[in-house]
Amino acid sequence: MFMSRFSLSSRGPDGVALLALALIGLATLVAVGQPIITDDIWIHLTLGRAYLDQGPWLQTDPLLANALGPPLPAAWLTGTFLHLIERVGGFTGLRILHVSLVTCIGLLSFSIFRRANPSLPVVTLGMSLFIALAGYRLIQLRPHLFTILACLLLFRLLLESGRVPSRRKIAASILLLLLWANLHASFLLGPILVGAALLSLLIAYLMKAGERSLLLGRSRALLFVLVVGGLATLINPTGSEQHLAYLVSGSETPALGRVADEWTRFAPFTIPDLRTPPSPLVWGALWILIFSTPLLALLSVRKPAAPRALYWNREKVDPALVGLALVSLLGALFAVRFIWLGFFPALLVASYLRKSVDQPRPEKPVQNWLTAGLGCFFVLGFFQMGPWTMMSGMLPMTQFGYSAPYQASKYHPGAISLLSHADLEGTLFSDYYLSGYSGYWLSPRIRSFVNGTLNVAPEVIAANRPIRERRGEKPGESFTELLDRHEIDLFLGTRLPRTPPTTRPWYSTAGHLEKAEGWLLIYRNLAGALYLRDSPRNQDNLKRITRYYESIGVPFDPEVGFQTSKVISKNPNWAIANSLIPSHFEKIRKSSIQIDPLRRNSGMEMLARYYTALGERASAIRLDERLTRLMKKSESPRRRLIYNLIREDRLSEATEVAQLILDDPNSSPLAVHLAETALGIQNGDLDSSEIFRVPVFTASEAAAFGRGVFIRTPEDQAVPWAKTN
User: Cα–Cα distances in Å, from 574 out to 419, 523, 557, 617, 712?
Assistant: First the structure.
């Protein structure tokens, strides 16, 4: 008897299903526990520091130079909490908190699925689907984790049992809504879900679909929570203002739809790629939910013709869950950031697959094996076509990399360190994702042009893209005039001019102010360049940076600015420590003058790449002109020649090289693109500024720059340069 209970036919599917879920779950926790990758965490930490010091009613925005006013304290309690965790436990404490929150979400969601359907294959498949739907959100340490957890808790307190909730549960729900309104701006999901469940119960009551006294009792309880809990959400620093935050966005501030991975609508007729949410697997799963949720909603109110013939208790599915599933599906379709709400439609499906207690049906191992097998295929889909590509995009492959506090390489900490140590002041323009990090280290002395809070006027955000594309915004306005109009003092240009690694817009801005009148280069490395507006208002900044460089023995001319070649020559150790050159740079230089042609050409090739990346145009041109004479296969030197010659205003020479590329049938698309750009500029079909938007390095060439290059973070912690180029 004992052996029969644990036979392969009865227990085998459970084991396979649990193993499949364990693979997805463990992989997710590994991705969650990696060095902090969330860009907005720096904003929350900085604001949390201010909230702890001044309270939630800030007088000014400590991060933004052109803020409309103080930041909306929608997540003030989260920011304060995260800052306290970071103060006590450092970044390790934040990572432990992150893993703990996701673990709680996972355990609670598993418990809810388990109560809805005792079949382990069904439960594990539903859980795998939920992890896929929420995966991209789970790896980000942001206030939305509290929202996901709060939604699950609200369901458990009020709706899961199918009975009238007790007074304690009602009180706990109201307290949860009050706390939620101070943790995250998405707290309105709570009243929305309660309202949807209430409406469904009332419809069921009118249709006599169930015990009317029970439906009426539950409706009264939910109405009480909706009214009293809704009033409780007004107990926050700004009262009703937070309830209108989304409506205000887009009129007084930029539309939230501009934030690509936040408010992008689900596109049902466009299969997405693997690098942007939702993944193809999630896209397909949502289509299944789109079809199944309305169908099951209709079946839930349909009276069975022959009750004794039914083995599945479709008619007993909680109408409150039907309402939750429908409104959650609408939320998932409304914005990509709410796709995790697919949990409730998936829970509805799991409930429909539950075997009736009153009419038990015989065990059917084949069905269990099919469900477990589907779970195994889902695991393959999760890693091949699911969110894993996005979740693991920056996952370190070494123990040392995984132990790092955060992905320092993506934040250009060398430039941030300089700004911090030299005590500079003013308005800083940098990439959108960098602003939170720079604000954490530099505010309030240096404030950002724009950041993820979008607490700026529409004209500020409208200037962001023209600046990255190196052009003016208004008719007849130049790029530098646009910077002056917004009184930008410091410009942090980033990224190599390389082929884009993703389908998202890619801008290389490191060379945007090279030789620009009125702008001075004050810092350079392989990843970016920092410029100072040379104007009367920045004379104190210029004196500070001059004194700082003098104190550390780095050559700097306040008239000329930062001279890369001189710095490498006079202080190579500083150049290596600040990722200006790799640690083996001297070996490369010596190889470039060897007698052996293979070593010499290889050394010259690498040296020319570094000089091109660093903006040392003349040196790169000399090397590449020699390489084109020495090497038969010389496409990469010709590419660099075209690029650097145009940047040096030697257009006629660039077109000569371009013609050689166009005459070669084996030229790569990148080389042809550069050649056609040169000819287009020469013929007047293209503006000369077009060269700033053309890549010169391939993906493999860009990746090679990371070898032997180190980064020194603002807290003076040296870590290897990760795959950021």
Answer: 16, 12, 17, 22, 10
What pLDDT sits at residue 208? Answer: 73
Round to whole Å and give the CA distance between 535 and 414. 24
- Output the pLDDT for position 10: 60
3-state secondary structure string across 495-555: CCCECCCCCCCCCCCCCCCCCCCCEEEEEEECCEEEEEECCHHHHHHHHHHHHHHHHHCCC
Taking CA atoms, 619 is separated from 521, 581, 626, 702, in Å, by 18, 15, 11, 19
Task: Return the bridge partners of 521, or none.
Answer: 531
- Assess contact for 386 and 281: CB atoms under 8 A: yes
Residue pLDDT, tens place only, 172-195:
999 999 999 999 999 999 999 999
Q: Do 571 and 554 contact (CB within 8 A), yes or no? A: yes
| C-alpha to C-alpha distance for 370 and 121, rounded to whole angstroms | 9
| 37 phi/psi in degrees, rounded to 5 | -115, -5
Nearest to 671 by CA among 662, 663, 679, 680: 662
Rounded to the nearest integer, the mean pLDDT of the chain is 88
Q: What is the mean pLDDT of residues 157-176?
A: 96
Answer whether the bond into residue 444 is a cis peptide, omega within 30°.
yes
Give pTM, 2 decimals: 0.90
